[in-house]
Design brief:
Elements: E1 2-6, H1 10-22, E2 26-30, H2 33-43, E3 49-53, E4 55-56, E5 59-60, H3 61-71, E6 76-80, H4 85-93, E7 98-101, H5 106-126, E8 129-132, E9 135-138, E10 143-146, E11 149-151, H6 155-165, H7 174-185, H8 191-205, E12 215-218, E13 222-225
Parallel strand pairs: 1-2, 1-3, 3-6, 6-7
Antiparallel strand pairs: 4-5, 8-9, 9-10, 10-11, 12-13
Helix pairs in contact: 2-3, 6-7, 6-8
InterPro entries: CheY-like_superfamily, OmpR/PhoB-type_DNA-bd, Sig_transdc_resp-reg_C-effctor, Sig_transdc_resp-reg_receiver, WalR-like, WH-like_DNA-bd_sf
Pfam family, one: Response_reg
Organism: Paenibacillus borealis
């Protein structure tokens, strides 16, 4: 998962970036609104969540939040020293998903991030879009994208990915996968065929299929995607 961090205080920004990376997040760091706007305009689809400092030298987090929400429905958390009801309400009305006042403990911010991401994951599973790291499934269109680029999948590959997408964080045994694929596959799918399709999916979706980070093998149990 990639996070856009916009914070003008370079000391705070450096500490936050380090902490986020230690938690396994990829980060893009900007110190002003102008550079953040450029990054968002170039490829907003690469981001899973945004952390915006409210007061920036050349703008505000409100403006960036508005830009994000007009293009994609991804979570936005404000970081600010301002702690009054008017600004909290304004931020939430702009579409922000959470609001944390400086100084704060990094563990508290990480907890807020995970909480917001869980909420979005539940909503995406109930809706038409499922996000798994840098892979996005548009269920109404039957299309899959990686880093914004469309990936061509066969019907069975798509169905297998959709099963994983609807069970993010859960270990699925080979038998569970076979049973669910069998429901819609139209022909017999055996254990060897499943192995082939897992390999094909990894070849199309993983950055390094030999060391899969998306579709992980859980030895002795099966497979899982996500945390």
């Amino acid at each position: 998962m990639k996070i856009l961090l916009v914070e003008d205080d370079k000391t705070i920004a450096s500490g936050l970036e380090y902490s986020l990376q230690q938690e396994g997040y990829w980060t893009v760091l900007c110190h002003d609104a102008a550079s953040a706007r450029r990054v968002l305009a170039e490829d907003i689809d690469q981001f899973t969540l945004c952390l915006f400092d409210l007061q920036l030298p050349d703008g505000t987090g409100y403006e960036l939040c508005k830009m994000v929400k007009e293009r994609r429905d991804i979570p936005v958390i404000f970081l600010t020293v301002i702690d009054d009801e008017v600004n909290v309400v304004m931020g939430l009305d702009m579409g922000a998903d959470d609001y944390i006042t400086k100084p704060f403990r990094v563990r508290e911010l990480l907890s807020r991030i995970k909480s917001v991401l869980r909420r979005y994951q539940k909503l995406s599973h109930a809706g038409a879009v499922i996000d798994i790291d840098n892979v996005r499934i548009h269920t109404l269109e039957g299309k899959v994208y990686k880093n914004g680029a469309e990936i061509s999948l066969t019907a069975l590959e798509y169905r297998l990915l959709l099963i994983f997408g609807n069970h993010v964080g859960q270990v699925l045994t080979r038998n569970q996968l076979l049973e669910q694929i069998w429901d819609v596959a139209g022909d017999f799918v055996n254990d060897n065929t499943l192995t082939v399709y897992i390999k094909r999916l990894r070849g199309k979706l993983e950055d390094n299929p030999e060391q899969p980070a998306l579709i992980k093998t859980v030895r002795g149990l099966g497979y899982k995607v996500g945390d």
